Amino acid sequence: MAALGIRSANVQSIADFSAERPGILGTGSALPKRVLSNKELSQFIDTTDEWITDRVGIATRHVAGEGESTVDLAYAASLEALSAAGMSAQDVDLILFATVTADQMLPSAAALLQERLGASGCMAFDLAAACSGFLFGLTVADSMQRANGFGPALVIGSENLSRMIDWSDRQTCVLFGDGAGAVVYDARSSKEPVILASDLHTDGSKKDLICRPGRAFPPATLPESIAAFPENTASPYVSMRGREVFKSAVTMMCDSIEAVLRDAGCSIDDVKLFVPHQSNKRMVEAVCDRVGLSDWSRVAMNIERVGNTSAASIPIALHEAVQAGNLERGDLVLMTAVGAGITYGSVLLRW
User: Fold this and answer.
1) Catalytic annotation on 254?
2) Which of 326, 305, 336, 309 is nearest to 74 (CA)?
3) Which of 38, 122, 160, 277 is catalytic?
4) Residues 4, 72: contact at Cβ < 8 Å?
């Protein structure tokens, strides 16, 4: 993993066998340079390092500064993923950009990234599925390649969550960090499915559990003869109903994990690497306990150093596992997430 704008040393390239093996051909990630510790947080909010570590398992998180926008982070992660895959941006046929913190309303973050990379002409669009966004994007890429003949896809999760956090609210500000993760994905040459099973959902009835109610647009400036929108006094910051989120999230992720394992005819013992959304250490522990995964060497965890980076969470953790040499061809990788929406689900793929 590299700080923004700095390439990682000793990147584990998988280009040597990517032509023979479809699926994830390269991974990359980027984190802002500034690291914000619990000790620093305790200087301006009523909390302690012990309180944060005990409840959510986070010690530090990265916070974006000048020149570290959502697209900047995505660009650095994408270059690393393309390099690991032995490809150039001109080889990309599809860009799926998962984010809820795009730098601007129009054009899309995907379009801005496409221009920056020089991947002109390929299809590019954003996905707003919060913490589940990367899984949604990976599944959409797989479907478009298989059904419509699209070529290599760049699937990115990139977030600048610090811009929509109330730094006086210790229930939320201790959780989130900024960062980006990216993968190059191509399933076209596979005779067998790369994604063995996926189970993805949105439950809008739980929309208030995690939300940012402030309007995305400025106040209406229409002529008086046309009714304007009512004044929006909602908070521009993320709010969470923590206990309800915890209870619902654990149930949802466990149900989706059981569904994909059942559909693929596998058990949790067959999974080489479990990559959960880095939401809360206690939540991940509860999920592992319920699905019967007791071997923590098979769980990709970086929440202590990185915090919750929403859509970037899973690809960053996956990239770290690749760099550490924790995956071999044929291994089963299980990924699961839950986020605002509520969006949730799991994906089981063969590495």
Assistant:
1) no
2) 309
3) 277
4) yes
The answer for residues whose C-beta is within 8 angstroms of residue 318's C-beta and 6 or more apart is 24, 27, 181, 183, 275, 300, 333, 335
In 12-89 the beta strands, taken as DSSP E runs, fall at 23-31, 34-37, 60-63
The contacts of residue 255 (CB under 8 Å, 6+ apart) are: none
Report whether 86 contacts 26 (CB < 8 A): yes
- Phi first, then psi, for residue 125 (nearest 5°) are -155, 165
For 5-67, strand residue ranges (E) read 23-31, 34-37, 60-63
Residue of 336, 267, 270 lying closest to 300 (CA atoms): 336
8 A C-beta contact, residue 319 and residue 105: no
Instruction: Give the pTM.
Output: 0.91
- What are the φ and ψ backbone dihedral angles of 101, each rounded to 5 degrees? -130, 50
Name residue 230's amino acid. Answer: P
Which one from 38, 62, 122, 131 is the annotated catalytic residue?
131
Q: Does residue 277 carry a catalytic annotation?
A: yes
Cβ 177 vs Cβ 307: under 8 Å? yes
- Mean pLDDT, range 109-135, rounded to an integer: 97
Name the DSSP class of 29. E
Task: Supply 225's token pair.
Answer: 């003869």
What is the C-alpha separation between 3 and 73, in angstroms, rounded? 9
Give the DSSP per-residue string, 211-257: E--S-SSPPP---TTSPPPPP----SS-EE-HHHHHHHHHHHHHHHH
Q: Would you say residue 223 has pLDDT above 70?
A: no
User: Strand 179-186 and strand 34-37: pairing?
Assistant: unpaired
**Looking at the predicted structure, is the pLDDT value of residue 213 above 70?**
yes
Residue 123 phi/psi, 5-degree rounding, is -75, 135
Q: Is 308 labeled as catalytic in the residue annotation? A: yes
pLDDT of residue 221: 52
Catalytic residue among 254, 280, 308, 319: 308
- Are the CB atoms for 119 and 164 separated by under 8 Å? no
